[in-house]
Design goal:
CATH topology of the domain at 4-146: Rossmann fold
Strand content: 25-35%
CATH superfamily of the domain at 4-146: P-loop containing nucleotide triphosphate hydrolases
Shape: elongated
Distance between the termini: 56 Å
Mean pLDDT: 86
CATH class of the domain at 4-146: Alpha Beta
Largest sheet: 6 strands, parallel
Radius of gyration: 18 Å
Order of helices and strands: EHEEEEHEHEHEEEEEEH
């Protein structure tokens, strides 16, 4: 469905892969990038410099160990400046960490005939919309939302459970905290916990 022939030889578009951690977003982005390379497309891959897990800042890595080279960036403007005019495909991972300018950037690239592949976490640890992901999903031509498996009940996980010292992080914790399986779990809506300050002060009966 996301092959070049779907929209025509010279048409650009935006496709977004969203979901919680451990749902396979980076793995899916890597798969699409590799297929584009096999298809003889000129591809550039970018990622937020905040994500230095696994193979470091110069590659995108999935939790299962797959990787592809990527340029670390800290702004949408940097992506715009680094994008070659002859590039056919631009892929961006961890888009939730980027500034709001990533939305008009993706739109501009698509209008110029570039296929834009974006992956990111659509909700933060509180279960609330994360960064520019909601806007990117709204302007995208194709959206795929992936789910993980809830570690508590085994149901479809749509929330990122942040853990601090093995316990759910409080609502007033910082929104951005990069981590892996030691800091996060995938959970469903009903097993997801975000203690608020007033709840911490309620005495147990």
């Amino acid at each position: 469905m996301t092959d070049q022939s779907y929209f025509g030889a010279r048409s650009g578009w935006i496709e977004v892969v969203s979901g919680v951690m451990f749902s396979g977003k980076s793995e899916e982005l890597i798969r699409r990038v590799r297929r584009a390379i096999i298809g003889k497309k000129k591809v550039q891959v970018f990622k937020s410099h905040l994500d230095d897990r696994y193979e470091g800042v110069f590659s995108i890595s999935s939790h299962d160990g797959r990787a592809v080279d990527a340029a670390p960036v800290d702004s949408s403007l940097q992506i715009a400046r680094m994008t070659n005019p002859l590039t056919d495909v631009v892929a961006i991972d961890e888009a939730q960490f980027l500034d709001p300018g990533v939305v008009p950037l993706a739109t501009s690239l698509a209008n110029r005939g570039v296929r834009v592949i974006i992956a990111g976490t659509d909700t933060d640890f509180r279960g609330e919309p994360f960064g520019s992901m909601p806007q990117l999903m709204a302007v995208a031509d194709i959206v795929e939302k992936l789910h993980a498996i809830c570690v508590i009940c085994g149901g479809p996980a749509s929330r990122n459970q942040r853990l601090i010292g093995g316990k759910p992080a409080r609502y007033d914790s910082p929104v951005i905290m990069v981590g892996g399986r030691d800091s996060y779990e995938a959970r469903c809506r009903h097993c997801h916990q975000v203690p608020r300050l007033d709840e911490d002060q309620v005495p147990l009966l």
